[in-house]
Amino acid sequence: MTLRHTHTHMLPVQNRQIFFNVIQMKVALFVPCYVDQFYPQVAIATLELLEKLGVDVVYPESQTCCGQPMANSGFEHLTGGCNDNFVRNFSGYDYIVCPSGSCALHVKDHLHATDEKAAKEIRGKVYELVEFLTDIVKVENLTSRFRHKVGLHQSCHGQRGLKISQMSELVSPPFSKTEQLLHMVQDLELISLKRQDECCGFGGTFCVAEEAVSVKMGIDRVADHITHGASYITGNDMSCLMHLEGILRRQKSSVKVIHIAEILNSAE
């Protein structure tokens, strides 16, 4: 069952805990295609986490692809239908939250529609999940628990586009909004990596056009996490984690991938 067939009232409510005072904002949940089709648990974890924090979340059920795959392949001129549908579904909300840096960045930078005024307004309201939690909700503590050694993969769109973390090649003070949240999770051990912000090689259609290069880059990233003892690899983008998961499976590795929303929503 994908999230498109899951409604908020179907989720268990008896054990939900509100961590903070109810935040008076109406938020639309924007779910990427690959999450909806392959990793619906990530979308459900995002929804549950936001509701635990007191956020009023709505899932626009007629949402479809944001158009990023076409745009990245050089066919942005064919994304008009996707863009107009996005505007129809996501107009009128205070914020739009997405558990994906690449999709959020695409909408922020490239959403144009027949109703350009509405599109511009939406571009300013779209947030990737982590930046929404740190910059808008301003989460200061969590009661999440995750008893594992975790390696963090910094996705390129999140780091270099959304500025969720500092780039290591810059002579500037380091920061990571994702690490900031992970440090709030009880019993989680965040490991250090040798090349902490190196690309995994996924790159959307790049992994199709340059398969051999993409796989080699992914193998290098997986090796860094395994060498440093990770039991799980987490990140903000399930697309990158999907790429790494494929390599881990082919290597018959016991290391697993998990989206940060699942960790922040965990109570194990």
TrEMBL record:
Molecular functions per Gene Ontology: oxidoreductase activity
InterPro entries: Cys_rich_dom
GO CC terms: cytosol
Coiled-coil regions listed in the entry: none
Residues annotated as domain Cysteine-rich: 27-108, 150-244
Signal peptide: none
Top-level taxon in the UniProt lineage: Bacteria
PANTHER family linked: LACTATE UTILIZATION PROTEIN A (PTHR30296:SF0), UNCHARACTERIZED PROTEIN YKGE (PTHR30296)
This protein's name: L-lactate dehydrogenase complex protein LldE
